[in-house]
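Practice problem: predict the structure.
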Amino acid sequence: QVQLVESGGGSVQPGGSLRLSCAASLFSFSEYTMSWHRQAPGKERELVASITASGGNTHYADSVKGRFTISRDNAKNTAYLQMNSLKPEDTAVYYCKAVRAYDYWGKGTLVTVSS
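Answer:
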């Protein structure tokens, strides 16, 4: 059974950093495009960042460019999202997603940015 488990969320002050992890129980993890999405209260879920199967290409939402970095370790079946210079508007539940023939989603981890 496919499972994606996010971790690393929490509460942080503006300007702080967090590193999210997404551990995947996926056969052939290295063949999946991985992405991070977020959903703030009252808003639609949005794409934050994505990374191709090999890790050679990444994409970021304009709102996080220069502050967030997506990466993956195919040997550990894990994707990461390093978040720096966090802002209150980054507050959301963050989800990871794996895509190949089908989409798989994790259950999310809450990030709260507040002073």
